[in-house]
Amino acid sequence: MKANELFVIRRRIEIDAAHRVPDHRSKCFHVHGHRYVIEAECEGHLYPEGEQKGMVLDFGFLKQMMIEEIHDPCDHGFIIYSRDDVLQEQLQIHPSEVPPPLLKVFWVDSVPTAENLARVWYNRLAPRVDKFTAGKAHLKCLRVWETPNSLAVYPVL
Q1: Cα angle vertex 155, ends 144, 138, to 5°?
Q2: Whole-model pTM over 0.90
Q3: Phi, psi of 32 (to 5 degrees)
């Protein structure tokens, strides 16, 4: 084993969520849902000792972070662009208000495309990985499959 060897690990989760692309002039203009597949790729050196000896980051710990930062806030929810005034008016909700009890909302400051969601979720997860590993590993990229054939990656490697 070389002291400076880098390794990459990947962990994936899946969520079901609805969204809409307000300026799109095709079917994505309408509220619809996806089975998102989200994959986190972390890079780092192996822990030399302790509970995670021989690991970049325990897969279970990474999964827990992904659950807390992505799954729990978004799964079976509605991802809404904070400037989608038409949708907000239809649903009678606003980002500054608590949504009705039967509506789980995850507000985003950009149109909720796969590309933007990859960036949003990356920015939520990356600090958690850095803090948890004390900088020994980092989130290299996040992959978001909106469909089995459509993938967005952030940041570009």
Answers
A1: 95
A2: yes
A3: -155, 170
